[in-house]
Amino acid sequence: MKDYFLRLFKFNEWANVRLSAMIRTVEKDCPADALLLYNHVGQAGSVWLNRLKGQTPLTSVWEVHPLEEADKLLLLNSKEWIEFIQTSANVFEGAIEYKNTQGTAFLNNKVDILAHVVNHNTYHRGQIIKMIKPILGDSYKISSTDFITFARENPISKF
Predict the structure, then answer these.
(1) Which one of 38, 111, 153, 156 counts the least CB within 10 Å of its CB?
(2) DSSP 101
(3) What gap in Å lies between CA 111 and CA 1, rounded to an integer?
(4) Alpha helices in the chain (DSSP H)
(5) Is the Cβ–Cβ distance between 123 and 145 less than 8 Å?
């Protein structure tokens, strides 16, 4: 299970690097909603990681920061998730109790949270790409952020 989730989070990092390159291309013309979601993905990932570590989240999930700051958080967050999975002894065992941003208490399996984080990133990457695609223009070749593209470029034998 560890190898599988490491692969998913390496995919997540790979896709976030590709998204970062695309969003930097439209930096001056980046729609406000795209920047908001770009910030949100990094912040939400950080919140979930802190919850799994038993720490109080240090950020909200809807703050808007300049692109450079959002970029750093998203890419750092990707690396921190991989390190966490590599070094945590019980990352796949049991559940955690936490409160969401509205203060509602929940209990979720750790494995479900890991899957959620990757799926959440994928969902919002698609939204962001849809928002910036018209700005990139027809001549810009959109980089695929699909898992299968990652898998083709990174066969299992490489892991």
Answers:
(1) 156
(2) T
(3) 9
(4) 2-25, 32-52, 67-87, 110-136, 147-153
(5) no
Q: Is the pTM of this model over 0.90?
A: yes
Minimal CA–CA distance to 131: which of 18, 15, 38, 63? 38
Q: What 3-state class would DSSP assign to 49?
A: helix
- 109 DSSP β-pair partners: 95
Using DSSP's 3-state secondary structure scheme, residue 143 falls into coil
Three-state DSSP state, 157: helix
Strand partners, 95: 109
Q: What is the pLDDT along the chain (159 residues), one digit of tens a residue?
A: 999 999 999 999 999 999 999 999 998 899 999 999 999 999 999 999 999 999 988 888 999 999 999 999 998 999 999 999 999 989 999 999 999 988 999 999 999 999 999 999 999 999 999 999 999 988 888 899 999 999 999 998 755
Q: Which amino acid type is present at position 89?
A: A
Greatest Cα pair distance, the chain, in angstroms, is 49
> d(Cα 7, Cα 44) in Å, to the nearest integer?
20
Q: Identify the CATH assignment for 2-158 out of 3.40.640.10, 1.10.3720.10, 1.20.120.450, 3.40.50.261.
A: 1.20.120.450
